[in-house]
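Researcher: Quick one. two chains, 591 residues in total.
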Amino acid sequence: MSAEMNQDTIADVTKVDVTKAAVTKGAIKIDDVVKIYDPNGAAVMAVDHCSIDIPAGEICMIVGPSGCGKTTLLNAIAGFHDITSGSIHLDGELLCGPEKPQAEPGSDRIVVFQNGALFPWKTNLENVAFGPMMAGKLGKKEIYDKARAMMADAGLSGTENNYPGEVSSGLRRRVEIVRALMNDPKVLLFDEPYRALDSLTKSVMHEALLEIYYRNKVTIFFITHDLEEAIFLGHRLIIMSSRPCKPKKIVEVDIPHPRDYSVLTSQRFREIMGEAKGVVHEEAQKAFAAGEREG
Amino acid sequence: MSIVLDKPDTAGGERGPELSSLGLTMYRFSAWLKSPRPYLMLIGFAIVLGFWYLAVEVLQLPRFESMPGLTEVFREWFSKDPIYGLSIYTPEYYTHIGISLRRIAYAFLLATVLGVPLGLFLGWSKTFREFVFPLFEVLRPIPILAWVPLAIIMFSGSESPVIFLTFLASFFATTLNTMLGVESIDESYSRAASCLGASRWQVFKHVVIPGAMPYIFTGLQISIGVAWFSLVAGEMVSGQFGLGYLINTSYMMIEYPKIIIGMITLGIVGFATSAMVRAAGDYMMQWRVRELALVD
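Model:
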């Protein structure tokens, strides 16, 4: 990508309002959530009295070492797992809590999976159209027209009739995000989606994700262990302690949006990095030591 | 458009996206012809046939001397006036093939129609599996030959016991592979589908069935193979006509070249039916064919 093109991109997005305040839906309130696996047996505590408030439209980065229980939290929001106690609300509505330990999965909260979960047996276009087709509220033609338009907006024209296995992994991720956005979700839940990508592809994907965010304004709950990724994308970093998982430090990233890759070399970026690095490293060491004991 | 960061058409591989399945097949066939593989295959055949010829007719090695020779078998097979009454010019030859094929078709179709849904439900519903699977696992290891007496007692006539035996082997292979196919599906796919608002039934239709498809077709490949195996076993014990029957009666009538003709015919027809199943699988799983074509 040329520097010139990058400039155009930035000029374009400044026309849209990128402040969080513009978004009115998608506030997540995680209140004193505990998750214990196998409470009658091994009783492994994955999440320990965790409370996080995410305002609507925030890009909230959950940072922590691998296996610390971040994904458990995401699964609870998505409705894949129950919680042991506590509650999670989305825009004031209860997702899961004392009377209802497991949330219903729904198209207001869509997960973008670690290894990607585009259906390999459906074309990219069929994948993007999947949510509305299942809902069955709109006609097929209408849905496919919208799907084509959204794919075109995300730079995916020409790949509609390819199967996911035929396009690059970077493009696959983009298709998956467009598939989620087709349903007009309140929240996108990312489970380390760029983990398997090389760092060059990653940087392209980060800017593309921000672009999509600036256009669509959803709340983003993004799990990662990559600090650079977290600071570049996020409004806020919630650094988690290693298992059981619990917020340890919150770092505000006051670098204004829209951002592009030049912020990576800025003074402020390095300062925030310095602030966060110590805490993350300490937790990583704890996780490593715990892992060694288990092994 | 501002978001295009890399061009999709370069990322889609060097092939255009609109290549038809026929075009793809032709492309692969011509690539195969250009590779050393077909010639290695011919050399393989030549070595085995050459050994047969030398061992039986030229060197007359011990144990091989009473076996029918290559030239004898092929002369008989392609003779307009065969000594033992069976060649590609006699209608009887095609009656045997036709009857075996018909039995295979009945048994294989029945096994598929019953085995695939059963396997899908076994993989999909834990409760159903707990009911059925232990029983299934006790019945499955029983060799097909052990079923022969029961099949003859249970079914009247000469046709239905053979079809039953053939069906049985196919059915177990198909069911088991279909079930494994459902279990092999990455949980992320069903989770993604339910995230996107799919009901349990929609998950079954859009994730479980297509996701299990590669295993189902592996199962059907095995199924058609074991179907031939048990068909021949069945035809040797009961039944009239068919390639197994041909081999067995030729042995008893001391018409040895016909044994070999029956065996080679079984090999060719069996290979053809396998290839048909494979082609059906490729047709139904274009996504997989295209993925594999990129890997090649």
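Confidence is low (pLDDT under 50) at residues 1-18 of chain A.
Researcher: Thanks, that's what I needed.
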